[in-house]
Each structure stands twice: as structure tokens, then as C-alpha cells.
Amino acid sequence: MTVERRGAHVRLLKLWLPLGASLLFALFPFYWMAVTSLKPNQELYSRKVMPLIVHQPTLKHYVDLITETNFLEWTWNTFLVAVMSTAISLIFGAMLAYPLARIRFAGAALVSFAIAATYLVPQPLLFVPLADIINRLGLGDTLTSVILTYPTLLVPFCAWLLLGYFRTVPSELEDAARIDGASRLQTLIKIVLPLCGPGFISAGIFAFTLAQNEFLYALIFLTKTEVRTVPVGAIAELVRGDVFYWGQLMAAALLGSIPVAIIYSFFVEHYVAGLTAGSVKG
Amino acid sequence: MTAPSLAPALTHRRPAFSFGRWLERGGVFSWLMVLPPVAFLAALVGYPFFYGIWLSLQDRPVAKAGVFVGLANYIGAWHDPVFWQVVVNTFVYTAVATLLKMVGGLGLALVMNQDFRFKNLTRALLLLPFIVPTVLSTVAWQWILDPAFSVVNWVLVASGLINSPGPSWLGNPYLAMASLIVVNTWRGLPFYAITLLAGLQTISPELYEAATIDGAGTWQRFRYVTLPLLMPVIFIVTMFSVIFTFADFQLIYVLTHGGPANATHVFATYAFDIAMVGGQFGQGAAVALTMVPPLALIILAMAIYMRAPKT
Predict the structure, then answer these.
(1) What does the domain layout of chain A look like in residue ranges?
(2) Which of A16, A112, B176, B252 sits between 20 and 30 A of B205, alpha carbons compared?
(3) What SS3 state is found at A169?
(4) CB contact under 8 A, B144 and A32
């Protein structure tokens, strides 16, 4: 009896307490987004009302966000850009990874070094020259500017992750296909790719969330409201001078987070696999 | 009609001249595959990098032709007191945030490595700060730390810990830096925890059993079994964390914009202000490029540290 109770105490101290505190810390900002977005302004900016719950919930901030700003357009832009740059990154990533995983060719070491180097180049190192290049190409204020530049952040990761998956395909399968007369390209498309579906899902989910998250290039390249993405639109248009539209900002933050969170919740195992592949396998 | 019967005959006579066979050669096929992505990365990463170096050697106001000035932009940065404050800020931000993420992430990973119900759900929820777009969650933090309506202050005042109105989290230079570090830790800790958890799960339970039989206590099992086996994972995660914390932009841009009075400016936000707000591309490129030597040194130092044999 006493042993049992002591076990429960230890478990409380070693498991539930730290876990509960971590969850509270991790999730409170999301709770705060939701609560703030549902409060009417007089409640939001009152020092007398207990702020932790909503006393008179209203959807006014959501209605204002959708009718008075281009939020829906920003959402569509964000989605389009994320899908396009993810697709490009998966194709380029696979093109890099397959030869590196399977074929010994002159220059392979150089290519893998280049991929690793690109992976470690942080964005702030490149934004000044890229801003100039995008301007000279006449791509300023077009979604093309970010669809072209986001894959530079995503391709190295996709290549690295797919490399691991390509190596898991037994080479006997490929040899058999080649003996039966299939070309290298046919072997890749008909034999290897179908076996690497999970790898593509992991890399795709990861690339998609990173593309949704990007801010610096979007901030610099997209200055017109109709081409903006959600993060840039929210920061640039819901903060006017010194005035913060907190209700609308929190509504935008919540609505902008939900698509990523939903997609992530469906593929959480793949996402974690992608997250850990880079470090645990590497 | 004759083509199908002729084609094999032709290849039989001149086997060395087949385009299809040429394509099937390993080297040719590989380079045809990797060339488009390599060219893409060369054009949008390699070229901008070297073009940035060239820009940093010019006096180049936006939308005007540049004038070559040699190292003048770098010398200007050297004599700029704000630049040195930026250096200190960036190192403090990176060192403290990385340490907090490492220790906290390891702790959370050890907690998560026990058996309990709803483990997958908990893991998914704990990762949310990492997957949600940073700018959007940072705006929520800005509101949590608002000078007039901070909920943190409300809770502290209501529980009697401080007197109203409470500290201005983003208005005081030290508190602003501390706030940035907390928000960065909030965002990055799950990445550490989940990756280290995956590393923990690859450690064979037999090793712990063997250590226990040899008389090792909890701390000794952690120190001599867990930690050495987890080191490679810790190293990789830390390297990524250091690089991306060192070069962080969005969190600081949104939360403090480098203020108050440059107290939280880091390389990326300062370079942005010079190049994009001030319109001085040359100077901005120079400030951004000063990140390269410290970054290279950090990566090198960690690589050497990890290579060194340990007992």
C-alpha cells in the first residue's frame, strides 16, 4: 500500500508535473489567440475584466478580418506558394537523391558537399543580393518570386531525406527490372518511386510547413496586398502605424495556423519521421 | 512496317553508337538527373552568395549604380558602435536560447521516454509551437507581453507577486532580450525534445540492464549510457539550432524590431534595416556577410569537439 502510494507520488513528480507544465507552456499562446479573437473590443481593452476567459464572445473580429482585409486572398496565395514550392522541391530533391543513393559517378562527392553547404546557408545571408536580383528580373510583387526562391530552402532537406529512403529499396529489385530491359529512368519511376511513398509524404509535409512559415523573402519581395502571404499580410496590414488591431491579428494568427495544424495532425507520424531522419539517421 | 525488324539489326552492327545505350551509362544518367537541380541551386544560392560579396564592396544605394569602395563598408561597420552591440546581442541570444533548448529539450525527452497514456497525442500537441508559422505565434506572444494589457502581468498582479502595473517586458532592454530568448525557446524546444526522444528510443534496454547489474544508479546510467549514446544526435540538433538561432530574423523583427534602442538588434534585423529600410544595399550586404566567419568557426569548433575521442 505504502509502496504503491510512493510509486504514484514518484510518477506524479517525474511524469505528470513536468509534462503538464510543458503542455501549459506550449499551448497557452494558442489558447490566448482563441480567447482574444473572440472578445469584443471593450472587453479586450479593459483592465477591470478578468482576462483569462471570454465573457461576451463575438465573431466580429473574424467578420472584419474577412470583409475588411484581403485575408482570404492571402490564404490562397500562401497555399498556392506552399504547394508549388513543395512540388518543385520534391522533384528536384528526388533528382538529386536517386543518383547519389544508387550510382557511383564522378563528381558525386562534390554534389553531396554542395547540397550540405546549401542546407547550412541561412536566409539572412542572401536576402540583400536576392532582392536586387529579383528586381532586375522584374519579378518583384509576383508570386513567382517566392515560388522560385522557397525551393532553395527546401531542396537540400528533401534530397537528404529521400536519399535515406532510396537506399532502403533492395537493389535486387532494380537489377531484376534492368535485366528485363527497363531503362534506368523506367526503373526509377516504376519500381523505386512507388516504394518510397512514405519518404515523399515526410519530405512533402516538412517542406509544406516550412514554406507556410517563410517570412523574410515574402516580406521583401511582396509589397502589394493582392500578392501577400498570410504572415506578411497580417504584420503589414493589421498593424497600422502604432495601432495594433489585436482582435483581428489574433483571428488571423489562429486561422493562419489551423490549415498547417490540420495537415500536420493527419501526417504527424510522417512529420516526426522527417524531423528525426535528418539527425538520427544522419 | 520494316522498322521493328530493322532496329535490332542496326544496333547489332554498331553497338557503340546507340543514344539509348549512352543514356544508360551511369555517369551520363546521373549527371543528366542532378544537373537541373544543381543549376537551380547554383543560380539562386551560389550566384547570390558571390554577388552579395561583390555588393558588399560597393557603395550601392537602392535603384542606383554601385561604386566600388573596397572594404569601406566593413571598416564602417567596425567603427559603428551599434554593430558591436549587434554582435554582443546575437551571441547572447544564440548562447542562452540554445542552452535552454538543449537542457529543456533533453529533460522533456527523458520525461516523454516513460510509458503513459495518450503519448502520441501529447507528442503531437507539444510539437505545435514548432510547426505553426513563427510570425503568427510571435504576434500572439507580443500580445501576451503587451505593455498595457499583458496577461502575464495580470496573473502576477492577481496572485500578489508584483504590484500593478508590472514590468514592461518589451520596453526594458534586458527584459526585451529575455523575452526574445523565452519565445525562441518556446518555439525551438519541441524540435529538440522530439528529436532527442527518437534518439533515446534507439538505445537498447539491455544496456541499461547491464549497467544496473554492474551497480550503476540512475544518475550513472544517464551519465555513462544515455548521454554518450545520445551525443551524435545532440550534436546535429545543436548545430542546426545554433545556425538558425544565430541567423534568426522573423521572431525579433516581429517582437521588438531590434528595440528598445538597438538592445535586441541581431545581424539579420540590423542588415535588414540598413539595406531595406535605409536603402543601403552595400552596407547591408556587408553586415549580413560578417555572420559567415563566426558561423564557420562555430560549426568547425563543434565538429572538432565531436570528433575528439572521449572516455
Answers:
(1) 76-281
(2) A16
(3) coil
(4) yes
Question: What are the backbone angles phi and psi of residue B170, rounded to the nearest 5°?
Answer: -105, 0
| Contact yes or no for B31 and A124 at CB 8 A | no
Q: Quote the CA–CA distance of B221 and B215 in Å, as a whole number.
A: 9
Beta-bridge partners for B67:
B59
Nearest to B198 among A159, A253, A276 (CB): A276
Please state, as a whole number, how many other Cβ atoms lie within 10 Å of the Cβ of residue B257: 15
C-alpha grid cell, residue A181: 530491359
Residue B12 burial (10 A CB sphere; 0-12, 13-18, 19+): exposed
Is the model's pLDDT at B310 over the cut of 60?
no
CATH topology of domain A76-281: MetI-like fold (1.10.3720)
3-state secondary structure of A239: strand
Single pTM value for the model: 0.90
d(CA A163, CA B29): 17
> What phi, psi does B250 have (nearest 5°)?
-65, -40
Tens digit of pLDDT for each residue in B214-239?
988 889 999 999 999 998 888 888 88
pLDDT of A3 above 70:
no
Mutate which: B108, B136, B143, B195, vs A, most A CBs within 10 A: B136
3-state class of A240 per DSSP?
A: strand
Inter-chain touch A155–B268, beta carbons under 8 Å: no
Q: Which of A279, A280, A281 to mutate to test the interface with B (most CBs of B within 10 A)?
A: A279
- The CA-to-CA distance between both ends of chain A, in Å, stands at 48
Residues in chain B closer than 8 A to A155 (CB atoms): 37, 40-41
Q: With contacts defined as CB-CB under 8 Å, which chain B residues touch A132? A: 51, 55, 281
Cell numbers for A137, please give them. 528580373
B256 within 8 A of B170, measured Cβ to Cβ:
yes
The structural domains of chain B, with segments of one domain joined by +, span 3-56, 75-307
Predicted ipTM > 0.85: yes
Largest Cα–Cα separation, chain B: 97
- Selecting from A19, A51, A120 the residue whose C-beta is nearest the C-beta of B151 gives A51
pLDDT in tens, B122-165: 988 999 999 999 999 999 999 999 988 899 999 999 888 888 77
Nearest C-alpha of chain B: how many angstroms from A252?
Answer: 8
* The CATH number of domain B75-307 is 3.20.20.70: no
**Residues from chain A contacting residue B288 (CB–CB below 8 Å):** 124-125, 127-128
The per-residue DSSP string of B80-92 comes to -HHHHHHHHHHHH
Query: Nearest to residue B233, comparing CAs of B206, B197, B204, B208?
Result: B197
Query: Which residues in chain A are closer than 8 Å to B26, comparing Cβ atoms?
Result: 103-105
Q: Which residue of B has its CA nearest to A99?
A: B30
Nearest C-alpha in A relative to B63: A132
Chain B residues with CB under 8 Å of A215 CB are 133-135, 249-250, 253
Q: Annotate B215-279 with DSSP letters as a single string.
A: T--HHHHIIIIIHHHHHHHHHHHHHHHHHHHHT--HHHHHHTTT-STTTT--HHHHHHIIIIIS-
- Cell numbers linked to A128: 540583400
Instruction: Find out whether B232 and B226 touch, Cβ atoms under 8 Å.
Output: no
Mean pLDDT for chain A overall: 89
